[in-house]
Amino acid sequence: MSENTQVVKMNTAISQWTNSVTDLVIRDFDACGVPFDEYSKQCAMSAMTNIFKLVKDSDKINDLNGLDTSNLREIVGQAASLKLNANAVPRECYFQLRTKKSGDKWIQVVEMGIEGDGNDALLRNYGNDVEKVYPCWIVKEGDEFTYPKRKGIEVEPPTWEEKGLSNKVVRVVYPVKLKDGTIEYLISERESVKVNLIAHIRNNMMNETFGICKDRYKATPEQKKEIKEKKEEILSKVRNCEKLEDILSCEEAIPFISAAWLDTPEAMFVRKMRNNAIKKFPKNMNSLASSSLMHMDETYKTAQEEIAENENSQPFEVVADVEAKEEPSFVTEG
Question: What are the pLDDT digits (tens) for 140-149?
């Protein structure tokens, strides 16, 4: 088969898949009463192109047919509703594959994450009364920095002087101008990323059985208890790590930390600090965008998987404390 023929077939596959998923996403937008504008369409297209490349370069899955349509619909919908463009420079979001249990089978699912400049886009597009988002300050160890001070309702701005003494980022600051002319300073510290990393480890441990059994879904109550105790033992060691970097050196935790954290830790720390800085800033989002942002949160995803894991694991008994002695009046009247 010639190279040109292969390219034509690839482009046809992308086109067919793009049209199919886009139609589903448009339905979701219509159902929520949210307009599917040109930029949402552009973000959806860039998401699908990047997911196609992700699958093509992966050794875990053969082609797009190996992905669940509902998963693709959700992820592409997230990019479109949040208006995050994977083809922007610098890019605003990224995609990765994760192994997940579905029924009796293990499948590959796509997950989306927000890149540094995606946080700026979220603030610009959805931040309450935001007029302008200034470039993010990346404060490093050894730089001179003073925190903002409040005098009544007045705010004395922070100061930052770069010294170039280290590449270790200790905090990020987003100066945000509101429509009333005031400036808000959204600050996130390096150590706040410990929460993100612990949630990441918990999420990656979800299907681990530590050799106690082959499948956690078929584990006996005793095996489940043993697995839970082992997980708590590892998490306890992680929580006892004094610094963020110490977690990445924790031997028990390393198997559950992805390569992105281990290979490029500083980049991941900055990414998460930027995410954390804007997370609590009030946003005016439609229901679709709000749901998308919530479902991308690592802590939320971990909690949902734990709920799914433990649902119906124990019998729920309803005991009537008070026995009805007579019928209520509305039954007997008339």
Answer: 999 999 999 9
